[in-house]
Amino acid sequence: MSAQLGRPARGDNAVVHRCVFGLPTVVRVGPRLEDGTPFPTTFWLSCPVMRARIGTLEADGEMVTVNDRLDDDETFRAEHAAAYHRAIAFRDQLDEPLPGAPGSGGSKRHVKCLHVHVAHHLATGDNPVGAWAFDRAAPVPCPGPCVDDEERTVWEERLRTGEPGPRVEGRR
Prior knowledge:
The chain has helices at 2-5, 48-59, 62-72, 74-94, 114-124, 128-137, 149-161; strands at residues 13-18, 24-29, 43-45. By secondary structure, the chain is mainly alpha-helical.
């Protein structure tokens, strides 16, 4: 995952969804970083191609579309609110609940980040906003593995020795 990100991954994390090449697509992160800092986003989209596709959706104004739908479609709003509460309950099972029970990627009435919702959808199949956004992003035009064996080996060694890795420019 660090090779995909171009920096050491933070927090207690686990791969919960992989692409057809066996690389991480979604990572689950514990609710607190190593220093105890609250970290409310449980699911992270790590696939660089999927991140770009979802970023394009956001840049194209799909945030307005999904928030308008949450305002106008009572069933969609109720499904989103229920998934929002289940996501917080899931996170609270990983560690002591975070103060204020913050959500991630927005609130139960408003979406701020489609990446978080798509990651949650891919990891659990329990996020209607993420399913909606994923349907608009698919198919994902992945040209091949985003991390090769050499990059993976370099990052494994850097993480093992504690050496910080360089930011990777031009990462897909």
